[in-house]
Write a structure and sequence with these properties.
Layout lengths: L7 H9 L32 H15 L4 E3 L5 H5 L3 E3 L7 E4 L22 H15 L5 E6 L1 H9 L1 H10 L1 H24 L3 E5 L10 H21 L5 E4 L7 H7 L3 E4 L5 H8 L4 E6 L1 H6 L3 H15 L6 E5 L9 H14 L5 H9 L5
Parallel strand pairs: 1-4, 4-5, 5-6, 6-7, 7-8, 8-9
Antiparallel strand pairs: 2-3
Helix pairs in contact: 2-4, 5-6, 5-7, 6-7, 7-8, 8-9, 12-13, 12-14
InterPro entries: Methanogen_methyltrans, UROD/MetE-like_sf, Uroporphyrinogen_deCOase
Enzyme class: transferase
EC number: 2.1.1.246
Length: 361
C-alpha cells in the first residue's frame, strides 16, 4: 500500500502556491458512515459530542483523506427551529414533521441560537474536539445546510414548491429566516476553527427549475457566501442532481469550489466553469462505491481524473454525493490508494496505463 508523504493541510497549501505535492487531492464523503470506522452507533452522534468527534478523527487517521468534516444530516438547522425528527438507533436521522404547516406561522419562527438550540451545541463541541486534535494536519469543515434547502424543511417540501407558484413572498420570508440561521451557525463553526461548506440539495435542477433557483435560492446563497468570504473563508458547495442549468449562477454566487453529483457529466462542468471554480467529484456513490468492487472503484476514480485533471482552477477526487452508511471499507481505501497511485503531477499516459491494468484481480 502506498503511503502519503505530506499531510493534507501541507498538500493544500503547496497546491495553492503551485508547488510540487505527493498526490492528487482525494476526499471520500463518508457522512454518517464514519460511525463504522470506530464501532459507534449513529444514534450516539445525537447525544455525545465526543462520539461524533472521535469518529471524524478516526476516519481521517484511517484513510488520510483531504478533509475532516463534522456533519450528521440535513436537518440540524430546521430541527433547531422547531422541526421534529426521527432518530433510528443506527441510521441517519430523518425529518418527521416540518417546523410549521402554514404560512400564517412563519412569523412565529425565529433564527437559531447555535449555542442553545437543538443538536447544534453538540456539533459545536464536537468541532472543538476535532480541531484541537487534527486541525493542524487536515482542513476541518462544518457542513451548513443552505438557506433554500433548510426553508423546505421548515414548511415541508410539497408546501414550499406550491408556495413558489402561489405565494412567492412567503418563500422569501422563509429563506430570509433560514439565511439568518445559516449565518449564525456558520459564525459559531468558524469560532471552533472550522471552514463552513454549504449543502444545497434542494437547489438542484432535478427539484426546481433554473428560473426558480435564480428567484428563490440564489439571492440567499449568494449572501451566505459573501458573509463567509467576509470572514476570510473560501467557500465550497455541493448540490445533488442535475446542475447544468445553473453553472453560471454558481460562479456568480462567488463559490470557490463545486462538488458535483455523478449524474452530471464531469467534463462538461470543467469546460463550462473549471476556469473559475475548483471542481470536485464525481464517482458514483451507490453503484460504484457501495455496490462495486475495489477494482471498480479504482477504474472509475481514474476515469474521473482523466476527465477533469486539467481543470484550470483545480480538481479533487470525491464521490458524487455522500456515501451510503454501509459502503465497504475496502472501497474507501481503494479510492484513496488510487489517488496515491496516480500521484502528482498528472501524467495522462500514466492514467491510460493504469486503466489498462487490474490492480485487485
Amino acid at each position: 500500500m502506498l503511503k502519503d508523504r505530506m499531510n493534507p493541510l501541507d498538500r493544500a497549501a503547496a497546491m495553492a502556491k503551485g508547488e510540487r505535492v505527493d498526490r492528487i487531492q482525494c476526499n471520500p464523503n463518508l457522512s454518517c458512515g464514519i460511525a463504522r470506522i470506530n464501532g459507534r452507533k449513529i444514534s450516539e452522534f445525537n447525544t455525545d459530542a465526543r462520539a461524533l468527534a472521535s469518529s471524524v478523527i478516526a476516519t481521517y487517521k484511517t484513510f488520510g483523506l483531504d478533509g475532516a468534516k463534522v456533519f450528521t444530516d440535513l436537518f440540524t438547522l430546521s430541527e433547531a427551529m422547531g422541526a421534529k425528527m426521527k432518530f433510528p438507533l443506527d441510521d441517519t436521522p430523518d425529518l418527521l414533521e416540518p417546523a410549521i404547516t402554514d404560512v400564517s406561522q412563519i412569523d412565529h419562527l425565529e433564527p437559531i441560537d447555535p449555542y442553545k438550540d437543538g443538536r447544534l451545541p453538540l456539533h459545536l463541541e464536537s468541532m472543538k474536539y476535532v480541531y484541537d486534535e487534527i486541525g493542524l494536519q487536515v482542513p476541518c469543515s462544518a457542513l451548513v445546510v443552505g438557506p433554500f434547502t433548510s426553508a423546505f424543511f421548515l414548511i415541508g417540501v410539497e408546501r414550499l414548491i406550491k408556495l413558489m407558484l402561489k405565494n412567492p413572498e412567503a418563500v422569501h420570508r422563509l429563506c430570509e429566516i433560514s439565511l439568518q440561521s445559516c449565518i449564525s451557525f456558520a459564525d459559531a463553526a468558524i469560532e471552533q476553527g472550522m471552514t463552513p461548506g454549504i449543502a444545497e440539495p434542494m437547489s438542484s435542477c432535478t427539484v426546481v427549475s433554473p428560473k426558480h433557483f435564480r428567484e428563490f435560492a440564489k439571492p440567499y446563497i449568494k449572501r451566505l457566501v459573501s458573509h463567509l468570504k467576509s470572514r476570510g473563508k473560501g467557500v465550497s458547495i455541493h448540490i445533488c442532481g442535475k446542475t447544468e442549468g445553473i453553472f453560471e449562477d454558481l460562479v456568480d454566487i462567488g463559490i470557490d469550489a463545486f462538488s458535483i453529483d455523478n449524474v452530471v457529466d464531469l467534463r462538461t462542468c470543467v469546460d463550462a466553469i473549471g476556469d473559475r471554480v475548483k471542481i470536485a467529484g464525481n464517482v458514483d456513490p451507490s453503484n460504484v462505491m457501495f455496490l462495486g468492487s475495489p477494482e471498480d472503484v479504482r477504474k472509475e476514480t481514474i476515469k474521473c481524473v482523466k476527465a477533469a485533471w486539467d481543470s484550470p482552477k483545480g480538481f479533487m477526487i470525491m464521490p458524487g454525493c455522500g456515501l451510503p452508511v454501509e459502503t465497504p471499507i475496502q472501497n474507501i481505501h481503494a479510492m484513496m490508494d488510487t489517488a496515491r497511485e496516480i500521484g502528482w503531477p498528472i501524467d495522462p499516459e500514466k492514467l491510460d496505463y493504469l486503466l489498462s491494468i487490474d490492480k485487485y484481480k
